[in-house]
Amino acid sequence: MDSSNLCQYIVFFLIVLLVTRPLGGYIYRVFNERRTFLDPLLLPVERAIYRICGINAQEEMTFKQYSISFLLFSLTGTLLLYALLRLQTLLPFSDPAHQITPLTPDLSMNTAISFATTTTWQAYAGETTMSYFTQLAGLAAQNFLAGAAGLAVGIAFMRGLSRQKIDTLGNFWVDLVRGILRILLPFSLLGALLLVWQGVPMNFQPYLTITTLEGTHQTIAQGPVAALEIIKNLGTNGGGFFNVNGAHPYENPTALTAFVEMLAIILIPAALTNTFGRMVGSARQGWLLFWVMAFLFFVGLGVCHWAEQSGNPAISHLLGQAAPSMEGKEVRFGTGSSVLTAVVTSNGATGSYNSAHDSYTPLGGMVPLMNMLLGEIVFGGLGTGIYSIILIAIVGLFLTGLMVGRTPEYLGKRLEPTEMKLTMLYTLLAPITILSLTAIAAITQWGLAGLTTNAGPHGLTEILYAYTTSFANNGQNFAGLSGNSPFYNLTTSCSMLIGRFGQGIVALALAQAFARQQRRPETPGKLRTDTPLFGTVILGSALIVGALTYLPVLALGPLVEHLQMLH
Question: Which residues cross the membrane (predicted)?
Fold first, then answer.
């Protein structure tokens, strides 16, 4: 690994490490009604919102009430966005001459569900499909709303684990308002100003038609790009204003913007580990989760970097020397920046890619796929990373409990049949959904019709990637799959909904089961859950569950493709 890439990776991680504690403390204070430096400005606004919306900030919700509020809010956002998409031609800034992709009922439904679940899977090209009004009032607005809703669920989950002998998890509407007003909005304003300073457009100017050096005509879209760009990363959404997402010079004009946008993806999820430690009264618990995530992050980064730097042996043989794989890479910033972005976005539930993952080497492309198949346990999205890794930790505790013949505990609370049933349900939702839909697509003409570029092992990987990224609410894709068809619009929508609400509601149910228990004191015979030994238990559990579940399909896809490349 050359020194420039190594330096970039180290500096990136050091910034994440240094920000985790203060940002985690700020998030803790926001959601636990502690004073923050923004209170004089935002507290009157927050109270006004409660009065206008009729929210009783002192009233708390049970798991069922919290889940219903979460579902109803998301359903309302989905329906409003669907209506906006269907009526786009009647709304301001409609430009039929340039927005030539028809927003059919199935594409509109898929897009509405996609943005309301923070998936932002895009089966369309942004600049040839969406008007400025739709991008701003529809997609960017949902990035705020859906991102804050996911954060609220994560906070409620942590709150449930920290409480004792109580049925409530907080108030969804209060958590939602605070997430938008005190976290996403102020950071988005600062980030958008930085992006505008670096050259990201923020205007409503019409599309430009220019004459290139070759004498041909090219149409260039502008628009309110900065507003969408920053919240798509902060809210772990990822949908691009333009078709090529972060590879477009208007979304990502400089090396600084590339670096800042990657930090925007990972800082809040990383800080939530510290927030969790504060909530449960043990900073060591939070730091243990952080370092487990960091270890997996660097393993994925190292494998992906090695695979892309090694390149294709056939090309290296023709050149007479080793050559990195540059196909589909961000040539302005080099392979290292592309690899770092691929790993960050796949870990952070954010499809804000700046290179074509479909063009990566088989093992290089398998890294972001595996990051998502592991269940967002490496930092993850807003809230999802925390409850995903804790549920893997519970699986590990269950396995170790079987070995020693005693009931396992986490945070002083027993893992009894109710907790284990919910954990197993959460664990099985992903493979049942992803593998079932992949199998259906791989054996039907509707599914195979989407393989317009590749077949064989790579085609299978493209299909698997589509359903994995949909379930993980990530949104990035292997672009060789043509996903804008009724079949894929419907099936990926199902995957998004199960990934968002199936797992989220199960996590809330588990949180209430924990909240009802009395915390038991530590005794010498219990397995401590804040030690490096327990960190290895989490790592082992994640790898065992992932391998047992997905190794067969990976063997038929990227692994066999890698062997074909070598020979």
Answer: 6-28, 66-85, 136-158, 179-200, 255-276, 288-308, 377-404, 425-448, 487-511, 532-557
Nearest CA-CA partner of 233 in 379, 371, 92: 379
Helix/strand/coil for 262: helix
Higher pLDDT, 405 or 550: 550
Question: Which one is predicted more confidently, 217 or 273?
Answer: 273
Backbone angles phi, psi at 37, to 5 degrees: -70, -15
C-alpha 159, offset from chain centre: 22
Amino acid identity for residue 199 in this structure: G
Q: Strands 208-211, 217-220: parallel, antiparallel or unpaired by DSSP?
A: antiparallel
Give CA separation, 298 vs 13, 104, 166, 310, 378, in Å.
9, 42, 39, 18, 10
Helix (H, G, I), strand (E, B) or coil at 219: strand
CA 271 and chain centroid, separation: 15
pLDDT digit string, tens, across residues 61-75: 999 999 999 999 999
Q: Report pLDDT digits (tens) over 485-505.
A: 999 999 999 999 999 999 999
Residue 399 CA to residue 408 CA, distance in Å, equals: 9
Exposure pattern of 529-542 as b/e (b: 16+ CB <10 Å)? bbeeebbebbbebb
From first CA to last CA, the distance across the chain in angstroms is: 25
pTM of the model: 0.93
What pLDDT is attached to residue 405? 67
Q: Which residues contact 463 (CB under 8 A, 6 or more apart)?
A: 438, 441, 442, 447, 450, 451, 481
Distance of alpha carbon 102 from alpha carbon 83, whole angstroms: 14
Region of 338 (left: φ > 0; alpha: ψ -120 to 50; beta: rest) is alpha
Surface-to-core class of residue 452, CB atoms within 10 Å of its CB (0-12 exposed, 13-18 middle, 19+ buried)? exposed
The tokens describing 269, both together, are: 């999820």
In Å, how far from its chain's centre is CA 540? 23
Who contacts 416 (Cβ-Cβ below 8 Å, separation ≥6)?
Answer: 407
CA distance 249 to 221: 12
